[in-house]
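Researcher: Please translate sequence to structure tokens.
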Amino acid sequence: MMSHSRFKIRRLESKTLSWWRNRRKQIDMAPSYQRRGRLWSTADKAYLVDSILNEFDIPKFYVADFSWGDSPLNQAQLPYAIVDGKQRFEAIFDFYDGKIQLQDGFEYRLNPRYRLGGLGYRDLRQNYADVAEVFDNFVPHVMGVYAEKEEEINDLFVRLNRSKPLTGAEIRNAMGGEVPKVFRELAKHEFFTEIIRFSVKRGQDLNTAAKILMFEFKDKLLDTKKRNLDQFVERFGTDERERLELAGRQVVETLDDMRDVFLPRDRLLSSSGIVPVYYWFIRTRTRKEIPCIRRFIRDFEERRKENRKKLREEPGTADVDHELTEYDNYNRSTNDVASHRGRVDILSRRFAVSQ
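Model: Translation complete:
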């Protein structure tokens, strides 16, 4: 039994991929500190399988090992929880499940005469059992992480990924504390799961949720650069929990309005950078004005498009809407507080005129 405050990392007993496959349901693949899954392309996954079959070394896996006993970190009440290597495990399981195949140009080093390109695991088992056994019997390096404090696992995850091209949102999501818990919950809102059109594969929804939560918590528009968001997470004090909870509830109320304003997978929400601006603009509208907002924004965007076209085709023309040009200029610095304020002010003025 591990002592109360002890933190340790050691290599687990060597087990084959087939062993891990048979115990996949015993692995929590989505603990709160985990990096978002499904970031790899089909080609990325097939390349990992290629490396395994051709007996190249692959990076270590890190799993929280709860088999030693009860732990407050064992959210799913399973023996293991992935810390680092989720995409690799998913690629392996996808190959077993027939969701990916070997790439067409795959070459098998142990027997170059084999033509295995385009084949899946089932094909290998039926026709090239010796190759399937290589995959089954491959022994990955799996490191067991023994901890009782979430901060220790969070710290390990960040350290392991500092040299990898993670986004600020992904690293911020792995940090401990109260703030990441709140913006993770906000990212589950229907506005993010059903309404936005931009990709969330690299944590863009988490990043956007953190921005608007910071606005509400500070009750004003701010710079939303990485350092500002990181400081919001890192400098949060435990005596501010009630204030954070209130800010979270206020964000939910405005997201409810935004869900009603926009359409599912709305083309007006193709970029994450505009959401904080729309958020603050909609936040200050009355209930009576909510039904009019989408049409206003749609018409506003059409006028911006026409204005840009006019500038391209008729440089120097006097028949240009300079306020729309100013809005375009603000749009080039999406994370500056002056940009947020400028765009919200322009939207508010023009909306008032349109009513």
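Researcher: Any highlights?
Model: The beta strands are 8-11, 27-28, 61-65, 80-84, 142-146.
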